[in-house]
Write a structure and sequence with these properties.
Elements lengths: L2 H30 L3 E3 L7 E5 L2 E4 H14 L4 H19 L6 H4 L6 H23 L1 H11 E4 L4 H6 L1 E3 L9 E3 L1 H6 L1 E5 L8 E4 H6 L3 H8 L3 H22 L6 H24 L11 H5 L4 H10 L5 E13 L2 H13 L3 H8 L16 E2 L10 H8 L10 E2 L4 E13 L5 H30 L1 E4 L10
Parallel strand pairs: 1-13
Antiparallel strand pairs: 2-3, 2-13, 4-7, 5-6, 7-8, 9-10, 9-12, 11-12
Helix pairs in contact: 2-3, 2-12, 3-12, 3-18, 5-12, 6-11, 14-18, 15-16
């Protein structure tokens, strides 16, 4: 065989072998660099490992307990929430970022930001006390405080200065320099060789807004209670800082999971979710972008959601004062017939009708029609409530209602309230879907190993 031909054959074989070897190396690399969520963690002490960062099972179980009692989340759902929050905190915010400013419900109000930090700290304290044992923590408080130096009324007044700002804001503001210099107690934790000072500023910083208002007034009881809270926190922080303490790792995970939750909440707010029930976030703005086809499609698919009371058959008892109203209601509760109570107590002319207290058939009118009597509006508003109603205050006195029959009908898509409700619902769905896509992308790009034994008693 010519030498040139043999060399070509050897070269082809070598390339083939190298190709197989390359594929094998790529496969091995893929196994070791695999991303996404897998349920292959075999360590009873751990719940999950997120990008190489372990989270103890004890911390997850401790924080899951309230959800287990309320039945709002399964353990699997809670675990995915923990994972998602951790990834958002680490990759969107950066580890260790304080989200109190973003989480606060009052933009630009330092007092509310501080109050948010206090609430986060209280949440951590509750779980830490459960982990360490409530009685043990209380014993630490009893044994640790060795001397008190509570301020007098004049000294307490001197710790505050007048606050400039909104008319309804608190009129006092803590003078932090003076408060840091004022010792309210001398503390020695078990195992400490000497006492340490507990400043008024440290006590104040850990208090909720309502407690701070009591401290401003010079309440000795509130200050004593808050000093005890501060001592508990020193003990918990002492345990957290001691790497040799058996609960050190679990406490660190509890603190981290709570911080992740706050950071994820802050991220939701930045995306446009609501801060509280009176805040609409970006929902109204997004709702204006929902096109008519989507609104109509949702209405057609969910027509049963858009019904209203169209006719009501209602009876009433009209009385001039609360005493007679309460007496009439008591007799109704005792089982006396509505007609008998009408004849006995009502001052309306219809008390003498063949059917005492019966109003004419009430129809739900369109906005273009004349304004209905207030009594008719009350009947429509209370049409689906338990009957009879408690006494309802009106300009003339009190009314007790009993609705005998209700007829419902569909709401028209042309009503502005219906279209707005659908648009806002779809806008909220879009925002939730956007968040879920982001979390799914983060999980797909992360290396997450979950302990499957945590869900052994749950359906997949």
């Amino acid at each position: 065989m010519p030498l040139r031909r043999r060399l070509r054959q050897l070269s082809a074989r070598l390339r083939a072998r190298l190709g197989v070897l390359s594929v094998a190396l790529i496969a091995v690399a893929a196994v070791h660099c695999r991303k996404g969520v897998s349920y292959d963690l075999d360590d009873d002490a751990l719940a999950v490992v997120i990008d190489g960062e372990p989270v103890t099972a004890a911390a997850v179980e401790l924080l899951y307990e309230p959800y287990a009692r309320s039945g709002t989340l399964t353990r699997r759902e809670f675990m995915h929430r923990v994972i998602g929050n951790r990834l958002i905190h680490r990759r969107v915010h950066g580890p260790g970022e304080d989200c109190a400013d973003a989480c606060t419900e009052a933009d630009g109000d330092p007092a509310m930001v501080d109050d948010e930090r206090a609430r986060v700290r209280e949440q951590y304290d509750r779980f830490a006390a459960l982990l360490l044992g409530g009685d043990a923590v209380d014993a630490i408080v009893t044994d640790s405080v060795v001397s008190w130096h509570l301020p007098s009324e004049a000294e307490n007044e001197a710790l505050y200065r007048a606050r400039q700002g909104r008319a309804l804001a608190a009129r006092k503001q803590l003078d932090h320099d003076r408060a840091r210099a004022y010792t309210v107690a001398r503390v020695r934790l078990p195992g400490d060789a000497s006492e340490t000072s507990l400043s008024y500023d440290e006590v104040y910083a850990g208090a909720a807004l309502v407690v701070r208002e009591e401290l401003q007034k010079g309440s000795a009881a509130a200050l004593r209670a808050q000093v005890r809270t501060a001592v508990r926190r020193r003990y918990v922080d002492h345990v957290s800082a001691d790497p040799d303490h058996p609960q050190h790792r679990v406490l660190a995970d509890v603190r981290a999971i709570i911080a992740d939750e706050r950071a994820a909440r802050a991220h939701d707010l930045r995306m446009g979710f609501r801060r509280h029930e009176h805040d609409q976030g970006q929902i109204p703005e997004r709702a204006r972008t929902i096109n008519d086809d989507r609104i109509r499609a949702y209405y057609q698919a969910h027509r049963d959601e858009f019904t209203q009371v169209t006719e009501v058959r209602c009876r009433h008892i009209s009385v001039p004062d609360i005493d007679r109203a309460q007496a009439a209601h008591a007799e109704l509760q005792a089982g006396t017939s509505f007609a008998e109570v009408v004849q006995k107590y009502s001052t309306a002319p219809d008390r003498a009708h063949d059917e005492p207290g019966l109003l004419p058939l009430i129809r739900n009118q369109s906005p273009a029609q004349a304004k209905p009597p207030f009594l008719h509006v009350l009947c429509l508003l209370h049409a689906k409530e338990p009957q009879p109603t408690p006494p309802l205050l009106t300009r003339e006195g009190f009314e007790i209602l009993s609705v005998d029959a209700v007829l419902e009908g569909p709401q028209s898509l042309e009503e502005a309230t219906v279209r707005d409700k659908i648009a806002r619902h779809l806008a909220t769905q879009d925002l939730v879907a956007e968040r879920e896509r982001e979390r799914a992308a983060l999980m797909a790009d992360a290396r997450v190993r979950v302990n499957p034994r945590l869900f052994a008693d749950e359906a997949p």
